[in-house]
Amino acid sequence: MKQNIVILTGAGISAESGIKTFRDANGLWEGHNVMQVASPQGFTNNPALVLHFYNQRRKQLLTVKPNNAHLALTKLEKQYNVTIITQNIDDLHERAGSKSVIHLHGELLKARCTKDEFLVLPWSKELVLGDLSETGNQLRPHIVWFGEEVPLLEKGIEIIQKADILIIIGTSMQVYPAASLVHYVKQNIPIYFIDPKPNIKASDFNNLTILAKTAVDGVPILVADLIDKAT
């Protein structure tokens, strides 16, 4: 019987494909306060600005490709049941070939109705004022903004509770509620943390292994080791 591997990924894995994180040392997103471009109030105040901000993100996403870390993770699916829970809004895991990906913070290549959050459409072009859903309401980015609930959090908790192995890649584990997921794992399961500047210690969790490497360097090493253990 295959073991369940759950993988939590953050901005670090996508940054190595060239995805910008957009947040500078002052917490600004390309010169904008985060609440201007990533909150319901910001969208109400200046929807054109918010749409333009995400149009730029979407345009850049379409110019990059999955990296070796994304690609390596797909190899685990031959030996394990693998679910990726990501904070990233890009589709690089899917393009690499991962079959089961949960996007906690939404998806850049989708748009949704402003009046019906369950009315979601694929969207790869520019999204502008006047783009309407079938109900006649303005479309918005399918992104979980600050101040909004994370609708897939409960699903993420259910999945992580069944993990036999947990892998954390390229995330500071400081963004809540996503960072809280690690506290739902079964006791003493192996936890692997891959980040070039790890901000946790081996003593923080039972059975924790830290690989102080970038995702591109560290993930293939760990994947090879886990495949070897399963065969």
Structure characterization notes:
The protein is an alpha/beta fold. It folds into two domains: 1-18 and 66-105 and 150-231, TPP-binding domain (Rossmann fold); 20-63 and 106-143, SIR2/SIRT2 'Small Domain' (2-Layer Sandwich). The chain contains eight helices and nine strands. It has helices at 11-15, 34-37, 40-45, 47-61, 68-75, 92-96, 153-160, 215-230, and strands at 4-9, 81-86, 101-103, 106-113, 120-122, 139-143, 165-169, 191-194, 208-211. The strands form two sheets. A six-stranded parallel beta sheet has the order 3-2-1-7-8-9, with helices on both faces. The longest helix is centred in the C-terminal third of the chain and has 16 residues, at 215-230. The relative contact order is 0.18. The mean pLDDT is 92.
Short description:
The chain is an alpha/beta fold. It has two domains: 1-18 and 66-105 and 150-231, TPP-binding domain (Rossmann fold, 3-Layer(aba) Sandwich); 20-63 and 106-143, SIR2/SIRT2 'Small Domain', CATH 3.30.1600.10. It is built from eight helices and nine strands.
